[in-house]
Amino acid sequence: MGRPGQSAESAPSGQQKKLPTQFVNFVFFKVDSAWRRLDREEQEEGKREFAAVVKEYQEKGVMVHSYSMVGIRSDADFMLWRIAKNVEQFQEMMTRLLHTGLGKYLEITYSYLSFTKRSMYVDKMDPEHQNPRVYIIPGMKKYLFVYPFIKTRDWYQLSYPTRQGMMDEHIQVGSKYPSVKLNTTYSFGIDDHEFVVAFETDEVTDFSLLVQELRETEASRYTLRDVPMFTCIHHSDVMNALNTL
After folding, report:
1. Is 59 helix (H, G, I), strand (E, B) or coil?
2. Nearest CA among 82, 99, 97 for reference residue 242
3. What's the burial of 18, exposed, middle or buried (CB within 10 Å: 0-12/13-18/19+)?
4. Which UniProt keywords apply (predicted)?
5. pLDDT tens digits, one per residue of 180-214
6. DSSP E strand boundaries for the chain
7. DSSP string across 132-165
8. Residue 137, Cβ density class (10 Å: 0-12 exposed, 13-18 middle, ≥19 buried)
9. Collapsing DSSP states into helix, strand and coil, what is residue 19?
10. pTM
11. 51-58: Cβ within 8 A, 24+ apart
């Protein structure tokens, strides 16, 4: 499904560096309309409290990237893409966030849990790109497209060579869109879906064309569900994302 960009954490050629598992969470928030009726001073204080918690956990080593969907979706206003060394950090941080002045007016409309691991499929055009997929460094592009998906059970009944052949076609299509970076994470047994994919790019139309072409591949027949799909705009600082509310 496309080739992810190279990570700064990659080991030199021929040296396999063991990297820790990353736990990943995409959490989407909807702001209660009552919050917008508060006076400006109270709104600003609530946002500052929320941003302070985010920055505190960033200093503790949790990667947190902020995205806004105001004016794009009706069921989510902003999203935090979080990457941590364990799932407990997600829970601790969320408890703190929901007790801020802003947090009291937030509803979590979607939350996806996953983790990173090496893909079982080989990219024959560039086998070395498999290693960076184990460790992702997000937030480098203007737009992020996120969706969970599930394969049909028939997919898993196919032989490995048959699936690899279909993935060869899938990867070849992805290689035609180098401006789109793929981050694949896995959710087997820990959430309702099997994968969460996050595509980063500076060009919305490039991603749309990629998805349209992937629909025509053989592997697409074995997708059971791949919605909801989220279009998110990146903000380098969480306060900037909150200022869109």
Report:
1. helix
2. 97
3. exposed
4. Heme, Iron, Metal-binding
5. 999 999 999 999 999 999 999 999 999 999 999 99
6. 23-31, 63-68, 78-84, 106-115, 143-151, 181-186, 195-201, 223-225, 230-235
7. GGGS-----SSEEEEEEEEE-HHHHHS-HHHHHH
8. middle
9. coil
10. 0.88
11. 51/237, 51/238, 51/239, 51/242, 53/93, 53/96, 53/97, 53/100, 54/80, 54/93, 54/97, 54/238, 55/238, 56/96, 57/89, 57/93
Q: Which residue has the higher pLDDT, 137 or 36?
A: 36
Give me the residue label for tokens 């204080």.
Answer: 45
- 67-105 pLDDT, tens digit each: 999 999 999 999 999 999 999 999 999 999 999 999 999
Are the beta carbons of 112 and 186 closer than 8 angstroms?
no
Token output for 223? 């997708």
Instruction: Please give the C-alpha separations between residue 224 and each of 97, 135, 153, 193, in angstroms, as whole numbers.
Output: 34, 27, 9, 10
